[in-house]
Design goal:
The complex is a heterodimer of chains A (305) and B (277). Chain A contains 14 helices and 2 strands. Chain A has 305 residues and is mostly helical. In chain A, helix 13 runs antiparallel to helix 14. The chains are: A mainly alpha (305), B mainly alpha (277).
Amino acid sequence: MSRGRYWRVLAFFLLPAVVIYSAFSVYPLLATIFDSLYLRHQGAPETFNGLGNFYTLLGDTTWSKPFWNAFLNNCLFFVIHMCVQNPIGLALAALLSLPQLRLRNTYRTLIFMPTMLSVVIIGFVWQLILSPLWGIWKLFLQTLHLGFLFGPYLGQEHTALLTISLISVWQFVGIPMILIYTALLAIPDELVDAATVDGLNQWQTFFHVKLPLIWPTIGLVSVLTFVNNFNAFDLIYVTEGALAGPNYSTDIMGTLFYRTFFGNQLQLGDKTMGSTIATMMFIFILIGVMIYLFLIQRRMQRYSF
Amino acid sequence: MNVKRAISKTSVHVVLVAYTCLALFPILLVIFNSFKAKRAIFLSPLTPPLPTTFDLIGYNRVFSDGAIGTYYMNSIIVTLGTIFFTLLFGGMAGWALSEYKFRFNKVLGLYLAIGIMVPIRLGSVAIISMIAGLNLINTLTALICVYVAQNLPLAVFILSEFMTQIPKDLREAARCDGLSEYNIFFYIVLPLLRPAMATVAVFTMIPVWNDLWFPLILAPSGGKQTITLGVQQFLGQYVTDWNAVLAALSTAIVPVLIFYILFSRQLIRGLTSGAVK
């Protein structure tokens, strides 16, 4: 092929993807970071402000209070996922991967079902179930003689975030389950047989043979959970609205960003501060991914069979 | 020993059945009650619809609203459009990266890979200005553009991985036969990629279908809502009409469930290979 034709072929194959990706993904991301360096004026062009917006966001209490509130809520949201969703996912995967388990595929398919549905639908479904009007959850607790535990969970400041986190856990438990299940199936039988011959029981085999082998998958599940949690928005918007009530107790980075940028009943939309918050989210996610890539993934031994 | 094994086997099933019920109960509850009259929804929420309590009033309201069909159509167009362009452009770029050794090959691969981990949502502020500048607010085109950009990185990555497995002889033979580079890709490589493309299609489809964020900020009105956003808006309006709410939720759930049950094996396989790579 001549040089000219070679480059024409390359351009034909590469340009569409590179152009669309650059235009609708890379450019907006860079432009947003760039925007965060500017100051908005009512009716006048924006002026360069250096890191001023970040000082405002972290230093001015009208901004820093909601920001740290959203950040801490988001951390809690993530911690609940890590402590509830991933262990349950691991346990289900361990059960599903037991040898000679009947109906394995049926269980897997059914348990994974909520994960396929939209967060919007799931949010509404749980809102109805928890609603004191319908009283399904109350009935359930009363049958267990736990009726005194019932309350308007989504409407109380000290229970709303926990409730929403658990709804999200309920929906997405399928993802760690499936990923870990696939990893467990990939472990060669000889390893497990050898452990059995050496006299290990099923529990010991799981904790001493299988678990160490699937640490890389658990690391991957953790970083996926982190990125998704710090990018979450839909569930809270649907169940608690853009104001992330009651009294901002369910506000996370995604809802704070939405409110700041688009405005709401209480404040006008602010493009540059919205960009500043998006940039902070970008930094958090980047830190999380870096920790995974450089600290966790590097140290983990990979086994190939 | 046998008794012990039987007990442990049973207890595994007990745990799994219990969790399966927990996963399915809320969904089935909503679907069952959507077919009942209002009285029965509140008086006997846990019984399936009986001839005496059967009522389609909720569905009447949802469908008389008229827009649900349009919303479904919008979602289908956006999802199919996204899958088509993601596969086409992703396949082309993946082919160039895996087949031709040119300068910047590695750099370009890395550049595209950034998008796998960084959520495109963070660029929303600039995306809106741009879409507004292009006069594409409240169009499905805007959604397709953004979703293709969002899904391209992983598609390129997975497809190029598969392409390296296509035997070199095949391509060389085609070249000897005088096929142009374009024809090699479209007539030889693409057909061989079918399984990989199915994988990419699966994990592109679900997040696009379920997304609320971009429809909310880019196409919130003008009859261009996707089903996810349309249902959310409908529910906001009819919040006190339980029949309508339950029917709207079921209308959004049931087609997805049927699709899922038909293709669950492929879907789950696609999702796992997508996330692991």
